[in-house]
Amino acid sequence: MRWIDLGTQDAPLLLFGGPYSNLYALDALLEAGARAGIPTARMICTGDVVAYGAAPGETVARIRAAGCTVIAGNVERQLGAGEGDCGCGFSPGSTCDRLSAGWFAHADAAVSAEDRAWMADLPGMAVFRHQGARYAVIHGGARDVSRFIWECDAEEVFAEELAAIAEMVGPVDGVIAGHAGLPFVRQVGGATWINAGVIGMPPHDGAPATRFAVLEHGRARIERLDYDHAGARAAMVAAGLTQGYDRALETGYWPSEDVLPAVLRVATSDRG
Fold it and tell me: Which of 153, 164, 178, 249 gives 157 a disulfide partner, CB atoms 3.0 to 4.6 angstroms apart?
């Protein structure tokens, strides 16, 4: 795995994952950063720039022009290598696996050869120092880019990842990750694990707002991102992306829960 060292970053950092081809959400995030006085050079994306949404090419162009640091997600690796599926880690035959075929075909047709070369060259990990602590940025897992890591996972899961990261880049005090789509901050094994969430899809909580994180004064906080979700959904419908993720932008609920641990699933009766 290629990794990069971002040096010392003591000023506030904006951390985000999964733009997911949702140009409306990415533009809202860049505006939120500007309002907070955080330049794009201090924004770090945990990957999956491209996924469910209507504007894969435009979203890649916007994030490249902005100059944010981007870590390779599973989708970037797959598209960069010319593979035929998203490599998301969904169980074969699951609802998530079947639904991914539609949006991946749309993304595969939309990204250019230049975009694919950019994706193929993205680092798999970044490290930096912030307020005296050392952090690593990954997508899913250190050795498995599509590994889902949830807040409710056993401490052994986090310990395994921290050990793998230490083998690759040396010990760290914190990890910034994405992929799973649900944001959280958890203290584990003497380190802080920060999942910044994703901006392109709501965190399965019944509201359309998405999430990002800010690392400031040595602490991470999860922030809410409001954006024109109705416009994003309309763009998906116009593009024929109506497998259920379009509705999720408005309802706040994913079209399938089969990727989620049982404790994180929402009973149908509890959905408004």
Answer: 153
Report d(CA 169, CA 146) in Å as an integer: 20
- The conformation of residue 121, written as its DSSP 8-state character, comes to T
Residue with tokens 């639904």: 99
Cα separation, 137 vs 68, in Å, equals 13
CATH H superfamily, domain 3-270: Metallo-dependent phosphatases (3.60.21.10)
Alpha helices per DSSP H over the chain: 23-35, 56-66, 74-80, 95-110, 113-120, 155-169, 229-238, 245-251
Region for 191 from its dihedrals, namely left if φ exceeds 0, alpha if ψ lies in -120 to 50, beta otherwise: beta
Residue whose C-alpha is closest to residue 186's, from 165, 217, 161 = 161
Opening angle at CA 128, ends 126 and 129, nearest 5: 165
Q: Tally Cβ neighbours within 10 Å of residue 177.
A: 25
At residue 213, φ and ψ (nearest 5 deg) are: -135, 155
Beta bridge partners of 13: 215
What's the rounded Cα separation, in Å, for the pair 177 and 197?
8
CA 62 to chain centre: 16
Outline where 170-216 has alpha helix (H): none
Write down the residue that tokens 């640091």 correspond to. 69
69-70 and 43-45: which strand pairing? parallel
How far, in Å, CA of 227 to CA of 232, rounded?
A: 9
Contact yes or no for 56/96 (Cβ under 8 A): no
What letter represents residue 81's amino acid?
A: A
Q: Contact 16/196 with Cβ under 8 angstroms?
A: yes
- pTM for this model (two decimals): 0.95
Q: Strands 219-225 and 3-8: what pairing?
A: unpaired
